[in-house]
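Worked example 2:
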Amino acid sequence: MNQIRSAFLFGSLAGALAAAAPARAQTIPSSAYGALRWRLIGPHRGGRVLAVAGIPGDPATFYFGAVDGGVWRTRNAGVTWDPLFDDQPIASIGALALAPSDPNVIYVGTGEAAIRSDITYGAGVYKSNDGGAHWRAVGLADTRHIGKLLVDPRNADVVLVAALGHAYGPNPERGVFRSTDGGRSWTKVLYKDPDTGAIDLAADPADPQVVYAALYQARRTPWEQYPPDEGPGSGLYKSTDGGVTWTPLTGHGLPAGPLGRIGLAVGRGGRVYALIGAKTGAGLYRSDDGGATWRVAGSDARLTNRNWYFCRVTVDPQNPEVVYVPNVALLKSSDGGKTFGVLKGQPGGDDYHELWIDPTSPTRMVVGSDQGTAITLDNGRTWSSWYNQPTAQFYHVVTDDAFPYRVYGAQQDAGTAGVASRSDFGEITFRDWAPVGAGESGYLAPDPLDPDIVYGGDTYGGVHRFDRRTGQSHDISPWPVSTFGQPLPGWKYRFTWTSPLVFDRVDRHTLYLGAQVVLRTRDGGLHWESISPDLTGAVARPTATDTGPLTVANAAARGYGVVYAIAPSPRAAGLLWVGSDDGMIHRTTDGGRHWQNVTPQGLPSWSTISLLEASPFDTAGAYAAVDRHRVDDFAPYIYRTRDGGAHWTRADEGIAPQAYVQVVRADPERPRLLYAGTETGVYVSFDDGDHWQSLQLNLPVASVRDLAVHGRDLIAATHGRSFWVLDDLTPLRQLGDSALRAPVHLFAPAPAVRLRRSVSNDTPLPPEEPHGSNPPAGAVIDYLLRAAPPGLVTVEIRDARGGVVRRFSSEDRATPPTQPVQFADDWLPRLDPPTRNVGLNRFVWDLRYPPPPAGRYSYSIAAIAGQGTVAEPQGPLVLPGVYEVRLGVGEQTYTRPLRVDLDPRVHVTDSALVAQLRLGLDIWNAIAEQHALAGSLGSARDQIRALADRSLDRATRTSLTVLEQLADSLARASGGAGEELAGLETVVESADREPTQQARAVFAAQRERVAVALRRWQQVLTTELPALNTRLGGQRAPTLQLREEVPERKTGPW
């Protein structure tokens, strides 16, 4: 039985790949892989939110807009949240407003306006007229970043937009815009210049014609940690005609310029609050006369901390003395801003951004923060959880070599997460992920030699070594001195927000870290050494250009560049490709002793080398994902080299025009198969990047910051929708001209691992509990249909002896319960038979024999929300080994070998598994015998009762009564045995171990009960029934048509 573990038809995979001759990319229809599905694995730990809203008077319904996760709604005060924006082409939400006159009318301003380094862009204003069920774009697409929306409370068609404009360059579509026709047309009503946009709006609740606006001049550069705090274009404005015309507000108590970002709020009685960033005089200002005069309300330094990032103020709609300022904590004042206390916040800082207060009941509030959204119904005493929002912003993704493998990443302002790709409990929940040390923005690097050790980066060069066994996180930073906020050129090692940290893919003891040089450790961070010169283009000596303003032309030379990407080759130790954020690529083939500048010719400065990918097939091959959005160029750039970087070729045709590229990954099994993550989604190329097409499928639009290929899975790290996995890339790896031309094509299935759907013995988690999905539990069988067949599609599984293990049909239907169940119908078992769709079809065999034909099924407690439970008894699991898949379409049959592997965590002898299956099939056959007997007994009772109104002599009537009583007695005896056997099947299958002696004893006892009943019934049929039928015939009564039912039997592959 050694074949149980080791049997493998090596030629099958090679043959499948050979058959997958590269098809021209433009001939690959999306239907050829359209049945593939991304699955969310979490974590459900909320990400950054700048926009929140509610419905006045409704304590249950609230909305939030995630900065790269779309619009969400709760109808139960935050118990659960539902996405409303997944079908839209953009996911970054900067502002959100419900029309006070009709809360079904919702406006969304896309593009976050807190212009941090990992900012995501938008595409103008979107509108829904039905509470978020449907959306349409209504213009202002080139504003890119929108800070606030204001809807006239009297007319839902009148709306003002505060548009910040491009973050990395000048553009005219910025300022305040006004529409009076619900967004069909727009008028620019307040504009300063191409470098100044609008950031906030506030209206007088007593007179919506009175509106205040804040302009903000801010421009990000590619190299700075933060944008400028102030600019000459920033300022405060007032309109008294609903935003048609505007008057600047200066002096009269306001600070002198230059000003920074300004936040606005208007309370009852015309009280105006302005939170103002300024070089001098920053603070919270207050006007009690409609903006004519101002005074400092409070000078608490916490109010203007990182004013460019926060700077919002909210006033209680019923009490103008109560003021809230979101910042690192949610601050509250009850004395008009003189003093503030913390309403909500915890050590480490939550970074709050926006607060909405119900004007009908100010104790109801919703807040948006870097951690997600929370709701209070009791004035801030308690808050709903933000651990139910899968909007995490991840920077990178990596997997380990455990089984099931874990997915790791660092989440913006939340920390790290190691998430199981599969849970033993059927769904991925809070039980299946945990932090792994390190910080919010770094790379993570699981130790390839010890799965319990994870190395992780932190902001600006921090590095930690996390030990899962102890939970300890050892700081092993190369230079453990805080440099946060200090000028980059003065650092010993120049690091960025997200510095690359990767293991060599051949020398598994070597870990690399990117600064302005490449650092290396071979002893777990106890010692670091530099193995390169400065690879960023900085000059060693000052020159005349070292004075004056920083520009794109001189910033790199003055020491503002950093190493941004490191790609070790999987084919050769010490072969590294290194890219910088200022547009340079270097290569070493000898572990850093010598370096070669291989930057693509003509690549402009500050073209960030976002990620590099070394070819898995050729030491001279590599791919570069180049991101130029930080110089206001959103075009996609992918470069490819096949000669060690001597020549590079653009390879990005087919990617959307503004989908700048974050990552390119090469499939490690199929040459020329590439995957790309962009700012708006995922793409695939079948011809080495010459042509690309969407691989978005069901993945919500989001910035895909990184991709990882693990085995046959593709994992996406989104910057706003957590982690997603595309299971089983078999069709992508095998698609080719022959498959596309054939009327039917059965792909060679990947090996399947023998696993249970769920091993939970606990009460199922309720559907409201946040959860991700498990991969399919079983063998994934993919087939292409060029046309929908007129007849059935069947899938048959045969063992090594040719015996039929299982057969499925496209007409299979779920068996309804035989009696009422004590749980909701949503928990009933699901059936997914083979499909007959044009294009790709995916079917999953659970690696089991069919369930035995029991008279009554119970339902497993190992139920999964959204997927139901399973009926028991199930059929036994098959043995590891090689099976044959037979696909039937019409008159044709197509076959492929399928390998079933043992769970690598299980250590059991082959003989134990064989003994388990033997007993399992013996139980199966005994249940089938009992079921057949029950059918025969039931038929006897039905026929006897049908003779009740017949005139029969006393002797015949007595014989019938005795026979009916015997049938009842045998049915009870054998039925009880059948129920015991059904339960025993579950007992025997509960783990991958040899059956216990007591299980064998119970089987022997119950099997004997069935056998005794069978023998007695056979005696009736052979000796007693003929005489009774003779008497019945003599009285012209129908005879009893009884026979012994022949049960189906199952045999194993022996």
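The first strand starts at residue 38 and ends at 42. The CA atoms of residues 4 and 881 lie 4 Å apart.
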